[in-house]
Amino acid sequence: MASNFQSIPVIDLLLTNPPTRPQLLRQLRQALTEVGFLYISNHGVPQSVISDLQAVLPRLFELDQGRKDAVALHHSPHFLGYSQVGSETTAGREDRREQFEFATELEESWAEGQPRYERLRGPNQWPSAEADIRCSIERYIEELTRLGERFLHLVAEALSIPPEVLFSFLSDQHRLKLVHYPPSEISADKNGQGVGPHKDSSGWWTFLLQASPPNVKGLQALNRNGEWIDIPVIEGTFVVNIGQAFEVVTHGMCKATTHRVLSGSLERYSVPFFQGVRRNLTKSEALNALKDYIPIQQPPSQSDVGANIDSAFLRGRYDTWGESQLRTKIRSHRDAGRKFYADVFDQYINDDN
């Protein structure tokens, strides 16, 4: 569990220059081990790439319902596509958000006899006649893939781990969500759930673009005292947080911090990029790869909210990251799970461990 932080640190990546590099690494290590959330500035992603993506967000969500339904997520065994408001659940409640999910563009390669989780790998569903939207999204995925790799080198240095060890965990496919939180009536639901309390289970690291103006709030992280701390928009930055897989391999030294999004009276756009973890990663590999660099940690006490977060891979029942991911996807998107994974649907839905 994260420490009793009251704000989220900002790490300036320009400090990678030799005279200031030790300062950067100290700041980064502290953020990784005590907070689990940080902002990064001067990150190297061209502003034109970010601006182009922000410009297509309203257009994408303003598409008529028929065009959205044509690329609905329930058509995809890879859990890629459009989800309408209320179609995804977190912490047992419906999320008030609509979203498009995309990934590194790959051909479908799964065949009978392969592990079910390999079916998660596959192509996107693209809205028809929107070539410029696709171009902006694919360019953004390429830039964030490169940012993730640059950042991982810094993480390795900050934690004194050989970078090739950390890179050995990465997948061939990373995921991107374009999320729209419609405005909600606060008087009707003062604790409206944009997305409920959770730890990121979709990747190694999450790089989040808060794509709305600074006056639009909603994102919060949970500290050890059980206080929800606001993570406001800071223009020119990405919010970066630890995924569950990284918590596993670091034996809890670097915690995946519980967070949520509250609905508000203003609409909000958010773009999380999830750096992928290879699907065949086993629990044994995850627990042993860093044992020579990081001692096993005793988990500190945490708030009731944080303690009850569903995290299948952390709890140890599933031997591979891919299977724990498949379970999470099926539980979150039950229509697609029932359609494509009927043989394990009931097992994953009724399995709370």
From TrEMBL:
GO-annotated molecular function: dioxygenase activity; metal ion binding
Lineage of the species this protein comes from: Eukaryota, Fungi, Dikarya, Ascomycota, Pezizomycotina
UniProt keyword Metal-binding present: yes
PANTHER family named among the record's database cross-references: 2-OXOGLUTARATE (2OG) AND FE(II)-DEPENDENT OXYGENASE SUPERFAMILY PROTEIN-RELATED
Gene Ontology BP term (one): small molecule biosynthetic process
Domain spans labelled Fe2OG dioxygenase: 172-277
Annotated SUPFAM superfamilies: Clavaminate synthase-like
Protein name in UniProt: Oxoglutarate/iron-dependent dioxygenase
Family classification: Belongs to the iron/ascorbate-dependent oxidoreductase family.
InterPro entries assigned: DIOX_N, IPNS-like_FE2OG_OXY, IPNS-like_sf, Iron_ascorbate_oxido_reductase, Oxoglu/Fe-dep_dioxygenase_dom
The keyword Kinase belongs to this UniProt entry's keyword annotation: no
